[in-house]
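P.,

For your records, the input lines for the assembly:
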Amino acid sequence: MSELWKAFLRAVELIVNLDPEVTGITWRSLHISATSTILASLICVPLGGMIHFRSFSGKRGLISIIQTFYSLPTVCVGLLVFVLFSRVGPLGRFGILFTPTVMVIGQMILITPILLGLTISALSGVDRTIKDSTLSLGATELQAIWAIIKEARFAVWAAVVMGFGRAVSEVGCAMMVGGNIRGFTRMLTTAISLETQKGELELALALGIILISLALVINVIVNTIQQRY
Amino acid sequence: MFLIEVEDLYQRYGSKEVLKGLTLSIEKGEVFALIGPTGAGKSTLLRLLDQLENPVSGKIHFAGKDVSNSPKLRLERRRKMAMVFQKPVVFNASVYDNIAYPLKIRGYKRKSIFKKVSKMLEMVALKGYQKRNARTLSGGETQRVALARAMVTEPEVLLLDEPTANLDPLSVNLIEEIILRFNYEQGTTIVMATHNMSQGQRLANRISVLMEGELIQVDRSSKIFNTPGDIKVAKFVGVENILKGMIISSEDGVVRINVNEQIIEGISHRQAAEEVYVCIRPEEITLSLLRPSISARNSFPGEISLVAFSGPLVKIKLRCPFPLVALITKKSAEEMELEAGKRVYVSFKATAIHIIGLK
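Structure tokens returned:
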């Protein structure tokens, strides 16, 4: 027990002293996950708006499929991206396997269902008359979709934050396509996994505390948004 | 030339036919009211006019053009119209941003937007409210924001779906004034759905009565109220006395009708032996304690069965050879000391009778 306590105190020390290894991994994690979340949001929010706005056959089925993929296993996404970008894969010529770029792509695929599904649910909560009002006031379809997104902006924000939470906390995909290369593709989750296996509990605990703190912050943000609006 | 022409319009939701072959024309600059009970198809017609829905069949021509097949033309047409919905919904933004919205999406410059929005705020009596969040306003104020938002682009056609439903009398008056003023100043064609008959009478040049998806009558408002063409219209516009009878003679435009063994005289060119409905508006009936010596052709005794006060008016139910309802002023009722069981003379002019054929 005293060993564990010592490890915990050492972890806190690493955080407080801004250990270069710890800060480097944390910033890389935030950078990769924030990039994937921003890019996925730029695609999913308007796409979710389009799915919500338009009536087409199979709409319900499509939404069910999107919701099913909320819990898409990260290793499956990792495997898919690995196969696509490996040397012999269809996208192998880009040579981006084991780079932060491919990790961003993997995380984007992973959080797309959450962002899409939660955006559609958020927009469904907007009064239907808003759509009719915007159209009758002369809005184009895109202007009407944008107006509806603006009405549901707080719920859409919550969806984006949830997407970021999923991206920053996943390990399978990052490990498989990033390769956990020190100083290049090593993230919070992959580093925790590796350091634990190596027996470097101080570093693993320090990174774990940061990750849990991040999850806590995200949760507080989502709850605040949901309670206030 | 008519601005809007609707031709054999059908609309269906699932298996329910909401509009059944509607044909009507609306002139430029007129206030045209659609009246009818809830579920008659008024809102559906407005949504079709505003291009928010496509009809199952039939055509809508605007200034002679059918725009249904071109999305570009549909948008162009929609931008010349604006609709205010029964349930006013405003954006979760300031009053100013709400009213400015249609101008922003049309690409107006900031200065021009400010000028137009300020003018509108004054018109709808919301000056000083521009920074308030529109969601914090009262029902009447919210409806005025919705109205200003629709009027700010100075549309050719303003579509209003029950614009004063569920509002207090003061808000109703204010909104009616705004609508009339806008129509007068801008020459905007206004198509308004309402189930409030008196509002239709107050605001509209012409009224169309819609029932169960069918157009029953289109006419000037005074004609709809005084000479309804159909028994359903008569009931809807508040004709409380509808009596069934048979014409026993017809001479020089005066008919004598037997209603429950009481002879009533009216003005009509209908032939003898025809079965008819006799419609008498309650306000056309006068009551007196003594046999009247006035020129009213129809006068007979009756007994009061119910006296119901309603503001400045009193509704009186009478037992004559047939049941009748009269509407008189509170002052008259008090002067004559009218009460249930009292015997009075009931009179109405032959010109006050409107006759509708039974078939």
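Two observations worth noting. The interface with chain A takes residues 47, 50, 52, 75, 78-79, 81-83, 85, 87, 89, 91-93, 101-102, 105-106, 146, 149-150, 153, 159 of chain B (CB under 8 Å). Chain B has two domains: 2-235, 239-357.

Regards
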